[in-house]
TrEMBL record:
Name of this protein: Thiamine pyrophosphokinase
Domain of life: Eukaryota
Key words of the record: Kinase, Transferase
A GO molecular function held by the record: kinase activity
Length: 238
């Protein structure tokens, strides 16, 4: 006699709540292996596939192999945006693991402006949206009654730096530089360890954080303590 699944015996509403809980992934966390992905759960049996495949597919992060050798990122992004049968794509997350340490949202936005296929095409418009830690690609409307398609792009050393961009900016504003660089060594395999770096190299990496994660809001709150310190020192010297 076949054993009845406890999950399938539950009411549909409770099954839906369980599935939503299982499929939820906190932004910035590493990916689950394929055999533990939402799609793997939905493929367990025919009934789960019928009930949850669409939800599982939208909750699954699909990875692509990073090409060997030197990579021109705008070309990869453009190929993904122009790919057929990807009209449901809403998010691209580039995690370079330290392979391209100078790649950032501001840099990538500037690169896109000079990329020839993007310049000549009217299909997509790239917008800098650092307030939400992303580049936003807005597609051309396909019809008067259709909303413009939008694809968000995130980028960083790790999923944490890419998907929690705003939180990293706040850390920089609070001068928690050590936490950021130590987290890189914990999460990334292609980052030079501190034992192999000179003090100058560490300072250069710290300095470049301001380019990768510019402070974009509440500048007065971030810098006023430093202004107060400067004025206090000037008063003592006079």
């Amino acid at each position: 006699m076949a054993q009845t699944s406890v999950l399938l015996a539950l009411p549909a509403e409770i099954r839906n709540q369980i599935a939503e809980y299982i499929f939820h992934r906190e932004p910035g966390t590493t990916l689950l292996p394929p055999h533990k992905s939402p799609l793997a759960f939905a493929s367990t049996c025919r009934q789960l596939y019928f009930e949850f495949y669409a939800l599982a597919r939208s909750a699954t992060v699909f990875t692509m192999q990073w090409p060997h050798g030197r990579v021109f990122v705008p070309r990869i992004i453009w190929a993904i945006l122009r790919e057929r049968h990807m009209d449901r794509l809403t998010k691209i997350c580039i995690v370079h693991d330290g392979v391209q340490p100078y790649l950032s949202l501001p840099t990538l936005y500037s690169m896109m402006q000079f990329y020839q296929p993007y310049q000549t095409s009217k299909l997509w418009e790239a917008r800098s949206d650092l307030v939400h830690g992303r580049l936003l690609f807005v597609g051309r409307r396909q019809g008067p009654d259709q909303a413009a398609r939008q694809v968000s792009l995130f980028i960083g050393y790790s999923f944490r730096e890419a998907e929690q961009y705003v939180a990293v900016c706040e850390q920089i504003g609070q001068e928690q530089y050590a936490d950021i660089l130590l987290a890189r060594r914990r999460d990334c395999s292609c980052v030079t360890p501190f034992s192999d770096m000179s003090d100058e190299q560490v300072r250069n990496e710290l300095d470049y954080l301001r380019v990768q994660y510019p402070i974009f809001d509440d500048v007065e709150h971030v810098f006023q303590p430093h202004v107060d310190e400067i004025r206090a020192r000037c008063s003592q010297a006079s």
